[in-house]
Amino acid sequence: MKIKIKKRYIGAIVSLILLFFIFQKMDFQKIWEHLQQFDLKRLLIAIPVYFVGYLLRAKRWKTLMLNLPQLRSMTLMGITLIGYAVNCFMPARAGDFYRAHLAGSTFDISRISVVSSILLERILDGIVVFGFLVFVMIFFFHQPWLYHVAISSGLIFFGVFGFIYWIIKFGNVEDLFRKITILCKKYGLPTRFVNTMRQGTKHIASFINGFEVLNNPKCLANSFLLTIALWTVESIFLFIIINGFGLHFSYAAAVFLLCLTVFSSMVPSLSVHTGPYQCAFILALDAFGVNKEMAIAMAFVTQIIIISFVSISGLFYMFRYHIKLKQIQQEFDEQDSLDEIEVEA
């Protein structure tokens, strides 16, 4: 018997298990005391720095789409913030799909190609943050478990990037599906099936076209530089926040923390990476002698700042672009109906 399970339920289970182990034997009074130590004046610096990160994201997204003339960086930033706001409250990366839908309809470009650009964003993020982690490991930390994290993440991101690059350079989807169509006709398969294959070819070709930046060395190089810049800005943001608790961390600690929080987002979880995010703070700050209660307090403050900024900014742009929550929910429901896996029972 086959049972359909929505992938978001898997994320919920993972988050709940992690939260159970995190908060087991936790001293909540100490967490509250640590929260009171945070210097709120740090927000006057941290929030503008975090905003710069989104300006860089918008510029990078435009570059990944080959700086098409109809694209506007500020509009792309608004769409990005809307997408991240949706990700804060809906599971399964629903905001990424809505970003693609909104950008496609706003600029009259293929939504499938926009999805490709968003996927490439994630890959570039992984490669650059992997580079940050290797730098931190070489000069500051030498724990064995870090090598496993680095090797695993490196294989994933470089492997996917290499595969996509190979398809762009040497793959010929049209030719492949032409041969498949000939075989279908040769063996008398229904015309409807052949037409479905032909339609699928168009979608796949559109998806691959979204990676056309790989054929443009200048745009690709600029995308990498912008990715390095935005994650440097993110690490500065973390540096400001964690030092707002009265402790004196080095910048390397912020970079190390950034790497673990980014890679923790790969773990299935509830919205805003609840569970894996807290684990990343505990693991990273333990290397600096920070107890679990302080690490949880820092994670809580950081997440609250990020969620508040993204949510308020996202709602502002939703109002500006006349987008209703009902529209987003409809888009999510359509995606959610496909977001299932089957298991044998």
Protein described:
- Mean pLDDT is 83; it is low at 1-5 and 337-345.
- This protein has a domain at 2-107 and 223-344.
- The radius of gyration is 22 Å and the shape is globular.
- It has helices at residues 7-23, 28-36, 43-64, 73-89, 94-107, 111-139, 144-170, 173-186, 191-209, 217-242, 251-264, 276-286, 292-320, 325-338, and strands spanning 2-6, 340-344.
- The chain has 345 residues and is an all-alpha fold.
- The protein is built from 14 helices and two strands.
- A two-stranded antiparallel sheet has the order 1-2.
Estimated structural class: mainly alpha
Beta-strand segment tally: 2
Number of helices: 14
- In which order are the strands of the major sheet placed? 1-2
**Any idea what the radius of gyration is?**
22 Å
Q: Using the alpha-carbon principal axes, give the shape.
A: globular
Q: Name the poorly predicted regions.
A: 1-5, 337-345
Strand content: under 5%
Write the H/E string, N to C. EHHHHHHHHHHHHHHE
* Helicity range: over 70%
CA-CA gap between termini: 5 Å
Largest sheet: 2 strands, antiparallel
